[in-house]
Amino acid sequence: MKILYPFVAIALTTFGCTHNNPQETRFHSDGRAKPRIAILDLLDNSEARMPWSLTNEFTDEISIKLNSGGRLFIQSIDDLPIPLPVLEGKQSPFQDHSWLIGENSDAEFYVFLELVEHSLEPRQQYHEHPSYDLIMSVRIKIVDVRKKMPRVILQEFIEQTNYIPAQLANLDYHKFGYGRATFPLSPVGHAHSKLTKRIAARIQDYVLLAKSRS
Questions:
Q1: How far apart are CA 116 and CA 199, in angstroms?
Q2: Which of 8, 72, 123, 170 falls between 20 and 30 A from 85, CA-CA?
Q3: Residue 21 above 60 pLDDT?
Q4: 75, 42, 76: which is closest to 58 by C-alpha?
Q5: Nearest in space to 113 (alpha carbons), one of 138, 144, 136
Q6: How far apart are the first and last CA of the chain?
């Protein structure tokens, strides 16, 4: 029997399942063009088994946070000459991005993401009801393709550990997972929101820095 935790009782109308994003435009209000970026779907190479796609969640949430900042324009990958093996996750852009040489598209920067770790580790071994640490690691790579030879401007891991108390460790995420109104209030939802916010800020900072130096 699953326990119903206090946050579930909060009115569902407080947190909708959809996001109202500001209208995406290529230009700032003063007419200046925004840097154009392409974000490929996150590669999920973790061993996490969640009832939803972490690829879809992380890719969508990072894009939403970047859009809400209003300082970058996200180019649709449907309009870009990306090799099919890369789109399907069969060819890692972290190992080889030579296909970007001489790339001719509307995007100025390509963003690649990889979920390397997403694991729950008990804090107290041999305890009947242990608390946990949610350990996550995401690799980011940003490539500047404004010139014929692409240039990597950022490649790093962003790591994060979030404490999950024992009384919330067994929450049924089939009922309260991503897309549900209560997900942002759950331990995993809160942790994911914090991490995607950090990633979006990192992407924005490095793209704007590279743009300012051009």
A1: 14
A2: 72
A3: no
A4: 42
A5: 138
A6: 59
Q: What angle do CA 206, 34, 70 make, to 5 degrees?
A: 80
pTM listed for this prediction: 0.86
Cβ-Cβ contacts under 8 Å for 87 (sequence gap 6 or more): 40, 41, 77
Measured at the CA of 171, the angle between CA 166 and CA 176, to 5 degrees, comes to 145
In the DSSP assignment, the letter for residue 115 is E
pLDDT single digits (tens) 130-167: 899 999 999 999 999 999 999 999 999 999 999 999 88
- The dihedral built from the CA positions of residue 190, 196, 199 and 204, taken in this order, carries a sign that is negative
Cβ-contact 167, 3 below 8 angstroms: yes
Q: What is the pLDDT of residue 209?
A: 97
**Residue 161: helix, strand or coil by DSSP?**
strand
> Which residue type occupies 149?
M
Residue 99 in tokens: 């296909």
Where do the domains of the chain lie, and which CATH numbers do they carry?
31-212 (3.40.50.10610)
What type of residue is 176? F
C-alpha R_g of the chain: 19
H or E element in which residue 113 lies: strand 109-122
Cβ atoms of 15 and 179 within 8 Å: the answer is no
Q: Residue 189 has which token pair? A: 């939802």
Question: What are the tens digits of pLDDT across the range 178-193?
Answer: 999 999 999 999 999 9
